[in-house]
Amino acid sequence: MVYRMCGDASLAEDAAQEAFIRAWKHLPNYQPRSPFRNWVYRIANNAALDVLRRRRETVDVDEIPIASSSAGPEALLEKEERAARVRQAVLELPEASRAVLVLREYEGLSYKEIADVLGIPIGTVMSRLNYARNQLRKSLAPCLEDL
Amino acid sequence: MNGHVTSWIAAYHDGELGGRRLRQVEDHLAECEACRAELEQLQCLSTLLRESPAAKGLLSPERFAAQVGLRLPRRPTKPTWQRTLEASWRLAPAGLIGAWAFVQAVFIVTGVVLIALQVCGIDVLGLQQPVSHETWLTAILNLFQARLGDTTLTILKAISTLGWGLTFYLTATIAIILLYWSWLASLWARRRHQQLQTS
Question: Which domain holds residue A105?
Fold first, then answer.
């Protein structure tokens, strides 16, 4: 999840480590009113946002290099380029919409679970998800046509 | 079918619909090409997103766990007296329940023994002399009459009327309830403090 939020391996590792450490520190404060998984996702999302914020103060996130394509068969190269474009498009989404999209598309959480993780109403989850998908449909239109 | 179901297609695609709404969307999709195309676009987008591979060059789980382990703060060791105090506080409810059970048992056993003795006609400790309660009360009143307040007199008269056994039972029960409430209040205050610290 943090990788999809950060779009960069080293940032994702920082965020994931930060998330585990926060979860460890605040474990005694965990209230079993919501599932443990949602609690961990919430911490991971906050850690990813914090890492991105810290990084933004020094480097423009848009400038983070996306995994470079290695030499190889043309099909593989094309696939890697498409993956890089997808990562970039996801990264360009506003953080609030990106978090909803990542939790839905990559983590498979239900709207209710996403609402619980992010502390927002289900209606907001739906509108942010729609916004994110519409943005991606625009920015990834060439890739979608190829499918 | 009239009216598109555009606003529900995403929820349908995500498996969030059920019952009548689900049937409504399914019926509409069977007839409406535009909405089917919309659904197909969403499915294509999901496929495209999920096909995008995870990051390359991430640490192995073992190395990641080792790095997290190194960064974890060491738990400060608390002194023995603090740990003992903590354990006592945690065990307090069990102690209070035990005390309450003990008081109940004493009250019940004493009651049963006294009834049995009375049924057998045995007079132990002058239990069949109710005047004894009056005797000590009169003695106290004679001794402190000039200084005893109205409240004290009322309490003494209540004790005299109820008898020592029942008075002890009621006092102990009320004390246990009050202590338990205090413990609950301290638990609430502690959690609130922790929540404030977290936020």
Answer: 2-146
Give tens-digit pLDDT for B72-89: 877 667 778 888 888 888
Write out residues 14-73 of B within 8 Å (CB-CB) of A: 14-16, 41-42, 44-59, 64, 67-68, 71-73
| Mean confidence (pLDDT) of chain B | 80
What's the CATH code of the domain at A34? 1.10.10.10
Instruction: Compute the distance between CA of residue B36 and CA of residue B31 in angstroms, rounded to an integer.
Output: 9
Q: Are B55 and A67 in contact (CB under 8 A)?
A: yes
Pick the residue with more confidence: B197 or A85?
A85
CB neighbours of residue B88 within 10 Å: 10
Nearest to A13 among B52, B59, B195 (CB): B59
Residues of A in contact with B11 (CB under 8 A): 111, 126
Q: How many domains does chain A have?
A: 1
Predicted TM-score (pTM) of the model is 0.58
In three-state secondary structure terms, B126 is: coil
pLDDT, residue A71, reads 47
The nearest alpha carbon in chain B to A8 belongs to B55
Any CB–CB contact under 8 A between B123 and chain A?
A: no
User: Please, what's the b/e burial string for A93-104 (b: 16 or more CB within 10 A of its CB; e: otherwise)?
Assistant: beeebbbbbbbb
How big is chain B, counted in residues?
Answer: 199
